[in-house]
């Protein structure tokens, strides 16, 4: 049953309608929990990390702790029922022996061939997760108070009482949940269309030299794998990054020649210090639940992260120790003043 838009109470209130919050809501609904409100400060979904990424679905992770989530998440996206999936395949240069030129003639180097990897329509995926959800756009989370009845969430359009609050605020998750997280900028570039670029080429990701590229809009989408710490929401361009990109291409991928950049944008990926997600109840206020720090793989992981979070929220199941929010709790002495959250009583 649809909730009235004026409802001021719910079972689960989710802060953030990016992939983390949306996938959690999607799985809650699959488990029969429809009494969910999402607060999204922006007028539209996907204005931050979930709308500024490279859309690559990459199953193989550097971290063993992420492997199971990546397998599950990638398999769900590959099935194609959630959003359009393009199984381009991909090379992880530096981790295998196939010549990348086998399937991408201008490419240099050897790597593992990952045939099932590809790209997904991220905007479509987000819409799918959010279909039928009660999303309050243009409404900000401004803090909460712990009460015996639940968490009284203060929002820009009045208080909402919730049994549980989910912190899925992306780059702002550190502020919202008083966690030690760091937002880092990453630049993406798209080169001008060129008939020599085959749209069916795979992605090429050099995990040692740290850069990646793939076909996009008739040109190439390129990334120098930069990561500069920044205040949440700071999308100011750093001019040196394009120079870093050109230097990496000249050194490692000269076969692509001179590329003219037609478009560029900056996004933010959010990390805990060990670069693993933060998923689970808060150590200080267990009715606050974090689904944060998805780092650079939140597209691939989203389906599995949402399923795990929803299972933990509904069944009280414990999650992997590696994702425990306690490891990212700000110590009382090092805590910066929180911008949004009020300390639980
Ligand atoms: C440049 C770049 C390239 C990437 N490439 C890939 C890739 O190829 N493959 C991959 O798997 N992953 C990739 N990622 C990672 C992926 O995009 C992220 O992990 C994922 O989008 C994070 O989703 P999120 O929901 O946590 O954050 P977000 O999408 O940022 O969503 C958080 C939401 O919370 C809202 N919010 C914040 N504070 C408040 C508040 N106080 N009140 C109300 N709402 C609030 C924000 O408005 C925002 O919409 C990339 C990321 C970037 C930046």
Structure in words:
The protein folds into two domains: 9-49 and 124-181 and 273-327, 3-Layer(bba) Sandwich (FAD/NAD(P)-binding domain), CATH 3.50.50.60; 89-115 and 182-271, D-Amino Acid Oxidase, Chain A, domain 2, CATH 3.30.9. Helices cover 21% and strands 31% of the residues. It is elongated, with a radius of gyration of 20 Å. The strands form three sheets. Strands 1, 2, 8, 9, 10, 11, 18 and 19 form an eight-stranded mixed beta sheet that branches. Strands 5, 6, 12, 13, 14, 15, 16 and 17 form an eight-stranded mixed beta sheet that branches. Strands 3-7-4 form a three-stranded antiparallel beta sheet. By secondary structure, it is α+β, with helices and mostly antiparallel strands. The structure holds flavin-adenine dinucleotide (FAD). Residues 15-21, 39-42, 47-50, 52-56, 140-141, 168-172, 176, 186, 188, 267-269, 294-300, 340 line the site of flavin-adenine dinucleotide.
Question: How do the helices and strands line up, and which of them pair or pack?
Answer:
Elements: E1 9-15, H1 19-30, E2 36-40, E3 56-57, H2 64-78, E4 85-86, E5 90-99, E6 110-114, E7 118-120, H3 122-130, E8 134-137, E9 141-147, E10 150-155, E11 160-167, H4 173-177, E12 182-191, E13 203-206, E14 211-216, E15 219-223, E16 228-229, H5 240-252, E17 261-271, E18 278-281, E19 288-292, H6 298-315
Parallel strand pairs: 1-2, 1-11, 2-8, 5-13, 11-19
Antiparallel strand pairs: 3-7, 4-7, 5-6, 9-10, 10-11, 12-15, 12-16, 12-17, 13-14, 14-15, 18-19
The structure holds flavin-adenine dinucleotide.
